[in-house]
Structures are given as structure tokens and as C-alpha cells.
Specification:
Cytochrome p450; five-stranded mixed beta sheet; 10% strand; binds protoporphyrin IX containing FE
Length: 461
């Protein structure tokens, strides 16, 4: 039986390296120890095993309700953001029940109805860009993804509560957006409320204000029920468990916060990366523009969604810099043989998405952005894994891909952008995700003069 190796430095040093420069930490470990290594990171689980071998990943994710589990308790780092009744912190039966409730609005026709909304919001944000004035692509993309979540998930449209929620959410994200400030999540001992100006004090006050707004919205809906509403909050409020009980206000709030944070930050980062690559590499941009030129006037969102090269760009963006670097942890419940290694019961393992996506035997020249690899080859779900798999696979996977493609297409059809930096951005920690340091500066060179009719996207009825 082989021995799992890994760095021997202390928990504190490894945790610090993982927070400060996760890419360097993963690459260094992979270089020294290969595609399975043991680390001393992760609050509560001081012995966290990383694997980036597709076979090992397939095993842990397809057995995560058998020889392994996907416990919510090991995701405690996210509790301050999403609350303890969030689907992310639930496990077993309660977890399965909550997923069943949350999944339908993120699939099929219900989700595709958000197409027009996404295109309109993109135009609204893009129309505010001024020619020659640099802006940060990630900020613009976050404005779009936040508005999509607030409108599609919360069903909260323009108005005072919408504006306030937008502002507070943006501010809350900022509290943990750098490697240094993200330490607040990783080290519970830093979570000290020393007044409104201390980082944790500020975080808590913002969370409290957001809670109040969400409770107000929930209470208003209870007072004035409207069966015609199709947003996800309305569907959650209408749902009943096996005993006929509705979700409590606290459960509703935690699930809203979960969708808000799991959904808008990640998608904004992914969209900003895809804008970067398209505007960085002229051959990619030109090929995309040629493909978009084949669209009929008033192309509907589904036609755009199915464009092969556009899809390949979005896939390649999520390959080269997967926003989620690792899957949620899985824990063995009995002795497991994994690729010739013996894992004792209670061992915590994550699939390392970043290293898997950089494996040169699966992706030749992994550092190169090559969308065509997705046109030339079909990858298995355990070779390409930006949204995880198994019992905790991302609930918003379809929405995120839909949003990425429609936003990128709408931007490229309507605006001529240029990347406004000289050095490639460094991939760096933003909360628990991987984003581009500096937010990807862009500049508007001009608006594209396609006839208005052909750039507007028709609604799916
Ligand atoms: C590009 C954008 C996104 C990426 C890369 C991403 C990635 C992921 C990954 C890797 C996981 C863990 C999967 C696993 O452990 O097997 C996850 C879980 C999750 N994601 Fe996403 N996600 C994105 C967007 C979204 C959106 C738009 C939503 C909802 C609006 C969302 C909601 C969730 C939830 C609720 C979970 C936890 C599921 C559970 O605990 O059962 N995500 N996501």
C-alpha cells in the first residue's frame, strides 16, 4: 500500500500559504508529491487530502453517498456568509430534500425564461461604459450577476429594497475579497466584533442589515401571497415538507443568502475571465465575432446558447482558471482503497479542480487558452469539473453557463472593448474562489454598429 505524502510544515504555515497564494501552494505540492497529497489545511480538518487524478476524483464523487459522505459540517467556514440552515451546511436527508426543492427553478424552461433579462441587464450595464474611460470588467460583470440573482431568485425588482440589497451585498463581498481579508473566514479567532470599524464588526452589521431586508421581503410576501410569481423565493415559500410544513423565515433567509453568494460572485468572476481571454487574444475574438455574425436577426437566447465556439470559450475559461479551485470535502465512512492508497474512516478528501484542469496528459499545453480543444474532444465529467459532481454538484451550473454565454455574446455584439493592461492578471484568492487580481481593466473603444434589430435578443415565450 502506498503512502500519501505532503508538506510537513505546520497547520498555520500551510493555511497561510493556501490563503495567500493558493495557486502557488497547489502547484508546489503537485510538483513535489504528484496527483494525490496530504495537507494540513482546512478549519476543523487538519488532514485534508487533495487529489487531481481523474480516476480518484471519479471514485470520491460517485461514492459520496456510499463509502464516503459529503457532510455539511465540514463547510463551516461558509457559515458566517450563508447561515447554518443553508443547503451547503445540511447533510443526509435534510440536504437531499433541500436540493430537490432548489433544483427545478435552475433548469429547463423556467431557467431559460431568464434569457431576456440577462441580455437586457448586460446592455444596461454596457451602455454606461464611456469610450476611452477604463473600467474593471469584474465590477461590471458583478453588477449583472447580482441583478440576475436578485431578480430571478429573489424576485426583487427595482426599488428602494432592491437598491439597498445591491449596495449591502456588494459591501459584504468586499469585506472578504482579498487574501488578507479572506483570513476572517479561515481563522475563527479573528471573528471578533470590536465595533463598527473592525472588519468583523462591519461584516456582522452588514449581515444584520441584509437579514432585516430579507425578512421584510419574506413577511410582505406572506401578507400578500401572489400565485403568479415564478421567482425562486416564491417557489420556496410555496413548498411543503413531508409533514406539510413550510420553510421557516430563517431557513428561507439562509437559502437566499446561499444562492446570492454561491451564485453571483462565482459567475461574475467567470464572466470577467472570459471577457479577458476574448479581448486578449485577437484570433479568439475574430473567430467569435465571425460566429456571432451568423446569428439571425432577433436570435433567441437558446440559439445563442448553442453556438459551439462561444460555448467552447466559456468552457475553456472555466478550465484554465476554475473559479472554484476544489470541490467541497468528502469524508470516508469506512476504509477505502484509492488508487493504491489506504484511507482510514474519517479521512477528508477534495477533488482539486485547478490541478485536474492543468494536467498536460488531458490538456496538452495546459497554460494556453485554446477553446478549440472543446470542439475537438469530449472530456469526461471527471476530466472537466468546474461545477463539481455527485451529491453536492453545483445547483446553479446551468444558470451560470447560460449567463456566461449570453453576457459574453451580448457584450461582443454591441461593444468594442480592449484589455487595458500590459501584464497578464495574476490569479488570486477572492474569498473562497480564484479571481483575477485587479479585476481585469478594460476600455471601451466604440459601440458596434450592427443594426439595432439584429443585436436585440428576443424573449423566449
Ligand atoms: C461559474 C459559476 C459557478 C461555479 C464555477 C460554481 C462551482 C461550484 C462548485 C465546484 C460546487 C461544489 C460541487 C461539489 O462539491 O461537487 C458548487 C456548489 C454549489 N453551487 Fe455553484 N458554481 C457557480 C455558480 C453558481 C450559481 C449561479 C448558483 C446559484 C444561483 C450556485 C449555487 C451553488 C450551491 C447552492 C452549491 C452547493 C450545493 C450543495 O451543497 O448541495 N453556484 N458550485
Amino acid at each position: 500500500m502506498k503512502q500519501i505524502n505532503g508538506p510537513k510544515t505546520s497547520h498555520l504555515i500551510q493555511e497561510f500559504q493556501w490563503i495567500a497564494d493558493p495557486v502557488d501552494y497547489m502547484n508546489t505540492c503537485a510538483r513535489k508529491y504528484g496527483d494525490i497529497f496530504g495537507t494540513r489545511i482546512g478549519a476543523g480538518c487538519r488532514n485534508l487530502i487533495f487529489t487531481s487524478h481523474p480516476e480518484a476524483i471519479q471514485y470520491i464523487l460517485t461514492h459520496d453517498t456510499k463509502e464516503l459522505t459529503a457532510p455539511g459540517s465540514v463547510n463551516g467556514i461558509l457559515k458566517p456568509l450563508v447561515g447554518d440552515k443553508s443547503v451547503i451546511l445540511l447533510e443526509d436527508k435534510a440536504h437531499r430534500r433541500q436540493r430537490k426543492l432548489l433544483m427545478p427553478p435552475f433548469h429547463g424552461e423556467r431557467m431559460f425564461n431568464y434569457g431576456q433579462l440577462i441580455c437586457d441587464l448586460t446592455r444596461k450595464v454596457g451602455d454606461r461604459w464611456e469610450v476611452g474611460k477604463p473600467f474593471r470588467a469584474r465590477d461590471s460583470m458583478q453588477e449583472i450577476s447580482l441583478a440576475v440573482i436578485l431578480q430571478a431568485v429573489f424576485g426583487v425588482y427595482e426599488g428602494t429594497r432592491y437598491d439597498r440589497l445591491k449596495e449591502l451585498t456588494g459591501n459584504l463581498s468586499k469585506v472578504v475579497d482579498s487574501p488578507l481579508s479572506a483570513s476572517l473566514l479561515f481563522f475563527p479567532f479573528l471573528q471578533q466584533d470590536l465595533g463598527a470599524w473592525s472588519p468583523w464588526g462591519r461584516f456582522r452589521r452588514l449581515r444584520q442589515e441584509i437579514d432585516e431586508l430579507l425578512f421584510e421581503e419574506i413577511e410582505e410576501r406572506r401578507q400578500h401571497p401572489d400565485e403568479t410569481r415564478t421567482d425562486i423565493l416564491s417557489l420556496m415559500m410555496a413548498a411543503r415538507d413531508e409533514d406539510g410544513q413550510p420553510m421557516t423565515n430563517e431557513e428561507l433567509r439562509d437559502e437566499l443568502l446561499t444562492l446570492l453568494f454561491a451564485g453571483h460572485e462565482t459567475t461574475a468572476t467567470a464572466m470577467a475571465w472570459s471577457l479577458y481571454w476574448v479581448n486578449r487574444l485577437p484570433e479568439v475574438r475574430d473567430r467569435l465575432l465571425s460566429e456571432l455574425a451568423t446569428l439571425p436577426p432577433n436570435a433567441d437566447p437558446m440559439t445563442i446558447y448553442r453556438l459551439p465556439y462561444l460555448s467552447a470559450i466559456c468552457q475553456e475559461s472555466l478550465r484554465i482558471y476554475p473559479v472554484a479551485m476544489i470541490t467541497f470535502p468528502r469524508v470516508t465512512t469506512q476504509p477505502v482503497e484509492l488508487m493504491g492508497y489506504h484511507l482510514e474512516p474519517g479521512t477528508t478528501v477534495v477533488g482539486c479542480i485547478y490541478l485536474l484542469h492543468r494536467n498536460p496528459s488531458i490538456y496538452p499545453e495546459p497554460e494556453q487558452f485554446k477553446p478549440e480543444r472543446f470542439l475537438e474532444r469530449k472530456y469526461s465529467p471527471y476530466e472537466y469539473l468546474p461545477f463539481g459532481s455527485g451529491s453536492r454538484q453545483c445547483i446553479g451550473m446551468a444558470l451560470a453557463q447560460y449567463e456566461m454565454k449570453l453576457t459574453l455574446a451580448t457584450v461582443m455584439l454591441n461593444y468594442e472593448l480592449a484589455w487595458a493592461d500590459s501584464k497578464p492578471p495574476k490569479a488570486s484568492r477572492r474569498g473562497v474562489t480564484l479571481a483575477a487580481r485587479g479585476g481585469i481593466p478594460m476600455v471601451l473603444k466604440g459601440r458596434r454598429s450592427r443594426p439595432e434589430k439584429s443585436v436585440e435578443v428576443a424573449a423566449v415565450s
